[in-house]
Amino acid sequence: MDSVNSLNVYGGKNDEAPEGVYFVNNIIADAIGPVIRTNGEDMPSSSTFAGNYVFGQGFSDNDDVTEANTSGFNYVDVMFERGADTIYRSSSNTPDIFADLNVDTGDFSLPTTDIDGQPRSGSTPSGANEDIADTASLTPLSSADVGPKGYRPTPGKVYVQSVNIANHDFDSGDLTGWTDTGGTGAAITTNDDVFSRGNSLVLDSNSAAVSQTVTVTANTNYTLSAFMKGSAKLAVTVDGQTYAAERTSSSYGFSSVSFNSGNGTSAVITASVDDMVTNKAAILNPNFDDDQDDWTVVEGTGIGQVQDSSNSSGGADGSIKFKYNSDDSGTPHDPYIAQTVTVEANTSYNLSIYNLYKSDNNDSSIVFGVSSATDISDSSSWVAQKDSVYSELKSAGNEKGDDSFYKDSLSFNSGPNTSLTVFAQFKTTTGAEIRVDEFELSYQGMPAEGTEAFFDSIRLVSHPLSPAESQSAEDD
């Protein structure tokens, strides 16, 4: 239940996919993300898959691996319910999930007893349990079942305690327990955006927010956490201070923030769309997937050239190659590419590119930046620029992309401009080649209206102070 990477058939660091796998009569329920993770590979060859019932946010991470073409898997919600013994078992809504008892398991034998120690019947279901009226001979262990029988230590202090948050998993299917403080844009989603268990919170307006007041203990350490995706912010306000966890991603992930309650005995938890995210200016064809489309290209007459390249910094389809052909005739020229984009005035921006050096000449470089004019030939119009030298990026340990590209970046303020021209210009006459890829122009600000944020499994737990924090609390 609620597992991540539920069936990873291509994990580890091996170069080859596994084979000879037996995966028979299993149940995977409410998987987080795709049930089967192949990392882009095919299912293992020479393997046996049969009698498996699986369900999650998707069948596989590979579009070529589907329920229709992958035998042995039934993509169905088994509708299990958790019993008093904490074990998930079938319910009145569970569909038929008969095990495949005729499958060839090679040198392996199918189990003859279930999780309760009861003998399996001739029509046993898949999974660990078969509903049998007899008394179970095996049960989950408790603390009384383990350790020395002749001695029981005095129960110790509970170091981690959970704070009661009403409807923290949104299992009610509505906002019960939460106050809709934004007025609009807060709802419960039940579609493919659900994290687990059928319901998740979705906010789709910059003003949308839900909150809940909970009781806390003064001068206590706490950690607030949730699984979030989209542009999400989870905050807690206590004793006049606000602490927040933020996440910007197209997939769910665990985010948390820790804090001390100070003199506070109550705290307000708020889920909202993040008010400060990384926005990107609309650069067309920034990865050169479509060669030079959407870019202004200026070359010399045979010597300074702009060409397409199959190399790529991010696994896409290409990049731009600057080349100086010393054997060609013509007038030397520093070729460049440029594109005019819309920007916010008086805003701090970051322009980044990836640079790949394909020669032994360490002096070869490019200059990249932004200009207030569409024709960048007059450098007096340049708002900001930077010489990007590949050898310096490499020795500095800058972020590395595919094909040995290295990332370079430039920060600047847009000033009064509402449009700027991003460019990269070749600066060499030595016969070297340089490739550039993955232009990105970004700034921090409010997300676009309609940006979504998703939340589930919101938790607040207390935990002990460290010795240093305890001494500081006593000194106060």
From TrEMBL:
Protein name: CBM-cenC domain-containing protein
SUPFAM superfamilies linked to this entry: Galactose-binding domain-like
Matches recorded under Gene3D superfamilies: Galactose-binding domain-like (2.60.120.260)
Disordered: annotated span: 109-132
Repeat recorded as keyword: no
Domain CBM-cenC: 165-239
Keyword match Iron: no
Keyword tags: Hydrolase
